[in-house]
Specification:
about 110 residues; mainly alpha
Length: about 110
């Protein structure tokens, strides 16, 4: 890797990256190419479910501390957590429907 210096107005110098020959990881002779990483969660259900559970916890906690939130002027936190939880449920339904329509072998019909 080489860094070329360029002048800016006022005499300030900045370094810019300019790749040189042989600077790439795959250019080494005889080195095997790295295998691509496997996808962890292809359909997104686990991630959306985790987010929905976290919003549900936030909703429960905000309901428990409703008096404190009201006193401090943060009552809108309850509505935010409720919306996050509701949108999470819609997201789970969307991801399950998408997985089923794509024909994933792990797909099970929702009853």
């Amino acid at each position: 890797m080489t860094a070329a210096s360029h002048s800016r107005q006022g005499g300030e110098r900045i370094a810019r990256y300019s790749p040189s020959v042989g600077d790439h990881a795959g250019d080494q002779a005889g080195a095997p190419a790295p295998e691509p990483a496997a996808a962890v969660d292809v359909d997104g259900i686990a991630v959306v479910s985790l987010g929905t559970v976290l919003w549900a916890v936030a909703l429960v906690l905000s309901l428990v501390f409703e008096d404190h939130l009201r006193r401090d002027g943060h009552l809108w936190w309850i509505a935010t957590a409720a919306c996050g939880f509701g949108l999470g449920l819609l997201g789970i339904a969307y991801c399950v429907r998408r997985r089923n329509r794509l024909g994933d072998p792990r797909a099970r019909p929702i009853e």
